[in-house]
Amino acid sequence: MQLLFIPAAGSARAEWVYQVRYFPNSEVAVLPGHPEGKPASSIDDYVAWLRGDIQRKRYRDIVLAGHSMGGAIALLYGVKYGSEVRGLVLIGTGARLRVLPARLKLLADMIKDEAGWRRILENEYRLVKAKVREGLIEEGVRIGAAVALNDHLCCDKFDIMAKVHLIKVPTLVISGSNDLNTPVKYADYLANKIAGAKKVILDGADHWVHLEKPRQVNQAIEEFLSSLS
Predict the structure, then answer these.
(1) Which pLDDT does position 8 carry in this prediction?
(2) b/e burial code for range 32-56 (CB count within 10 A of at least 16 → b)
(3) Which tens digit of pLDDT belongs to each residue from 16-45?
(4) Among 82, 120, 145, 180, which one is most buried in terms of CB atoms within 10 A?
(5) Which helix (H) or strand (E) holds 133?
(6) Domain assignments of the chain as residue spans, ordered by start
(7) Class of domain 2-97+159-228
């Protein structure tokens, strides 16, 4: 099986450092604009890009694992092209991803304020171990606030609550109990609407659950992959 990780808004490879180390044959889908190229303007467009990338690289027996916006991409891929994947791993995400207007304004204000943007990233990853956190911050600075804003706008428009039940592939839903961005009720909704979905809630974890509790998340993914064999 080909395990393919899809990053969150404004993120790329660094987000999945613990998972790539643990799953040596896995890959990270570096989305356009992160930082090379032009970012897509909707989750639909990111799905179209991802499908093209998968076809170009001739991946087979794909399991898509996405976090936050990456989870939205995986969800919509499952709705539109479910027959082309073996399974989905949905981490800290939801069928609808509204973003507070204040958050969008803050991101817009940071486009010309790199120091301010760095401070936001430092706070965003405050619960991640220092060595990994530095890599995340540096990557976030390279990608930039403008791309992060674009991605959050894509998330704000995303809503497939009426379509989630169409997903028929094996699915694992993971959430942190303290996640305020995509709270546990989002995971509950996905697990209830996707037939046969398995749900794992990790106590004490926040939005970046796979970075905060990598051992537990990797174990859950490993058990899920074993169930697909």
Answers:
(1) 98
(2) bbbeeeebbeebeebbebbeebbee
(3) 999 999 999 999 999 999 999 999 999 999
(4) 145
(5) helix 130-143
(6) 2-97+159-228
(7) alpha beta
